[in-house]
Design brief:
Elements lengths: L6 H17 L5 E4 L11 H6 L4 E4 L10 H9 L12 H14 L5
Parallel strand pairs: 1-2
């Protein structure tokens, strides 16, 4: 679904984020509202480059913050500052970012 950059650049950017998180020993949580939907499955490069990444399954919720397991997984990291990325900034990132901010996180 991403059309503003090439797939190769998207994969490179995604890989770099995962590698940077690994180098900085940052927790990585991945999720997808519907891994078999139009946005496709998660890029395997994320978990290949961040072996410590945790995948949180969802049952179709558009907003990851509507999934209690996702919220619990974020909370369990002990971090209060979050870096979020997603396919659609206006949806995948904005909705959970606003809810996380309302919950007291810096996003």
């Amino acid at each position: 679904m991403v059309k503003d950059i090439s797939v190769a650049e998207l994969r490179a950017n995604t890989t770099m984020l995962a590698k940077l998180a690994t180098l900085l020993k940052l927790p990585v949580i991945t999720t997808a509202s519907e891994p078999n939907g139009p946005n496709g499955p998660l890029m395997p490069e994320i978990h290949e480059s961040a072996l410590h990444a945790v995948f949180v399954p969802r049952r179709g919720e558009v907003n990851a913050w509507d999934n209690q397991l996702f919220v619990n997984t974020v909370r369990d990291t002990g971090k209060k500052m979050l870096i979020m990325a997603g396919v659609w900034t206006s949806v995948c990132v904005m909705f959970p970012a606003l809810d996380a901010k309302a919950a007291g996180y810096k996003v």
